[in-house]
Design goal:
Layout (H helix, E strand, L loop, with lengths): L1 E8 L7 H11 L3 E8 L6 H12 L4 H21 L3 E5 L6 H6 L4 E6 L10 H5 L3 E4 L3 H10 L4 E2 L29 H11 L1
Parallel strand pairs: 1-2, 1-3, 3-4, 4-5, 5-6
């Protein structure tokens, strides 16, 4: 069985989601490939000015060209490998037309942000066979507003990235990674106390 993992990366930092998902699928017996899109824009000052700068003035030409080129690349990979499963993380850059062209594969979306903030359209959402969301409130929102089924799937961890260190001295009791919202800070202060 073959799988194609399509997901975001950042120009200056790779979160590792795509590789971790590919490893998990390989552990289940899939032969995997990864196609990554830049979360905002491709790296480089020129791209930042052409895409982000132009978008400030609602000029979408360069952004749309980037998205179209990405979709062509994904379809080339899809046609060459004919995967059984297409696993898409976030999905905002993958067009409805590209998803339609992947008719022989099971298409799965895992939206690792609140779905209303991802830029994914209802038409894109409808193209997926399965939809998983990181925010549990999206399950009812999708059912109510889009008449679509979804399941809650929180983040897990990749044992190749996160693992115990032998002979390490523990000097931290609680570690938090995330944005320091006031309600989170209050919860963390209660835990510390």
């Amino acid at each position: 069985m073959k799988a194609l993992v399509i997901g975001p990366t950042f120009a200056d930092f790779d979160l590792g989601y795509n590789k971790s998902i590919a490893r998990a699928l390989e552990h289940c017996g899939f032969e995997t490939q990864i196609a990554e899109f830049f979360f905002t824009h491709p790296s480089g000052l020129v791209n930042r000015i052409r895409i982000d700068g132009a978008m400030l003035f609602n000029y979408r030409k360069y952004y749309d060209e980037y998205v179209a080129a990405f979709n062509r690349q994904v379809l080339d990979i899809y046609r060459a490998s004919r995967p059984d499963l297409v696993f898409v993380v976030r999905g905002s850059k993958l067009s409805s037309e590209s998803l339609d062209a992947m008719e022989s594969a099971v298409k799965v979306l895992w939206c690792q942000d609140v779905i209303r903030r991802t830029g994914i359209t209802a038409e894109q959402l409808r193209r997926y066979d399965l939809r998983y969301v990181f925010d549990a409130s999206d399950v009812s929102w999708l059912a109510t507003h889009e008449n679509l089924d979804a399941r809650f799937l929180p983040m897990g961890f990749d044992p190749e990235v996160f693992y115990p260190l032998d002979q390490s001295e523990k000097d931290i009791d609680l570690f938090f990674v995330g944005i320091n919202y006031p309600n989170r800070r209050a919860l963390l202060e209660r835990l510390v106390n």
